[in-house]
Amino acid sequence: MSVSKRPVAPGAQVAGWTVSLPPTPPEERRRVAFVVHKFPPESVGGTEVYTWGLARELAHAGHDVHIFYPTPDLLPGDERLKREGVHLWRVPLPDSRTHEDPIRQYWHTFRDTAFEAHFRAFLAEVQPDVLHFQHVQGVSARLLELAEGYPRVVTLHDYWYFCANSQLIRPDRTPCEGPSTGCMNCVDCATERADLNWMRGLRPLVAVPFVYRNRYLRRVAESVDLFVAPSSFLRDQYVRHGFPADRIVVLENGLDDRKLVQRATIPLPEPPARPHFGFLGSLAWQKGVHILVEAFNRLGNNASLTIYGGEQTFPDYVEELKKLARHPNIRFAGLLQPQQVGAALRQMDCLVVPSLWYENSPLVIQEAFGVGTPVIASRLGALTEKVEEGRTGRLFRAGDVDALAAVLGEIAAAPGSLREMSRLIRPAPVMAEHAARLLEMYAHISQRP
């Protein structure tokens, strides 16, 4: 049984908004600078994809858009590019960064004098009307200070400003409530991740750089005019950790629906059975893919599961997943190209997001809803804001194989429920609406004395 999906065509309206912003009159155009830690095509995580979609939207409307970011293997003369009307300012990421000792590696996650020097030159030449920081992890948090005098916006894509691993999850795969007094739990987390458990005997000493890091980031954040949180859950976490509630607004990320209407150059193979469940994302343990595989193993042959994701980043975990997969209808389909995402999601009867960490605003849920595909998700973090139980999908207790297996089994036994869920889905705001809201915010903070 396949669910009838919402058609999405070029030029269509989604959620009452047209695909593109109207052209901006010359006198209202802005020079906008983005700062991000990674960028496509070298990196295609949610933050990077969102930044690129927003930049293109603003550039297509006539704004002067610049993006500052580091990139590896940069050849001389390739520092500046222009792509689809967007100016890309690329800074070389030294090879030495991949072979650093733990202390230098930790320091460079939030400070780097080389990037700071490049940023000064960038500011002097571009002189933007507004600076929008998407992420500064691995670049330098001091860029926020160096931009003093410019209106500054920071989008909070994760928990990095108070959590060194950015995801609030412990090595034992359970959620964390954040740094304890003195950051002793941060020491335990970091030393276990780096296989440096012997350092725990020096916990008070090892905790010093963690305390310094968090205080430093909190101080530089004081200069920010406006924070944007894509979920209420994320905003609440930052407020709980001392960030200014009056300067954090909730604004859902915009959906760049252009790629949802693209047709895959190579047709995707049909699933062996329906309903067809799917996973699309990073094959990393915090995404909970092993929970999904174990749960699906308990189903009969009247359903199928396709897992999309790159297999090279965490090969040991992927090998573990493939050993776990005993059901004949589980397929590992590799990394999707951007133009294949819409087709893959339309082919699914239901997307599964079994995350173990406090997800903020997963792009893949927006994309699934954009084509009318219901979602099963962990009852954790902001996922409960994105998925309405029984209406646009189903929720289950994070990490609970039995609970997820029960939900999958119920849907496999009565797949007609997916049709009703699909009908009730309301897609996220498209990028045009999102960009219009941001332009209003840019104008507001630019007018402050």
How would you describe what is shown here?
The chain is α/β, with parallel strands linked by helices. The protein folds into two domains: 26-254 and 430-446, 3-Layer(aba) Sandwich (Rossmann fold); 263-424, 3-Layer(aba) Sandwich (Rossmann fold), CATH 3.40.50.2000. Helices cover 34% and strands 15% of the residues. It is built from 15 helices and 14 strands. Strands 3-4-2-1-5-6-7-8 form an eight-stranded mixed sheet, with helices on both faces. α1 crosses α15 (431-446) and α5 packs across α6 (203-221). The longest helix is centred in the middle third of the chain and has 19 residues, at 203-221. The N and C termini lie far apart (60 Å). Mean pLDDT is 91; it is low at 6-18.
CATH class of the largest domain: Alpha Beta
The total strand number stands at 14
Rounded to an integer in angstroms, the radius of gyration calculated over CA atoms is: 22 Å
The helix content, as a percent range, equals: 25-40%
CATH superfamily of the largest domain: Glycogen Phosphorylase B
Please identify, by name, the CATH architecture of the largest domain. 3-Layer(aba) Sandwich
Which strand order spans the largest sheet, edge to edge or round the barrel? 3-4-2-1-5-6-7-8
Average pLDDT: 91
Judged by helices, strands and strand pairing, the structural class is alpha/beta
Indicate the low-confidence ranges by residue numbers: 6-18
Largest sheet at a glance? 8 strands, mixed
CATH topology of the largest domain: the name is Rossmann fold
Question: For the terminal residues, how far apart are their CA atoms?
Answer: 60 Å
Number of alpha- plus pi-helical segments: 15
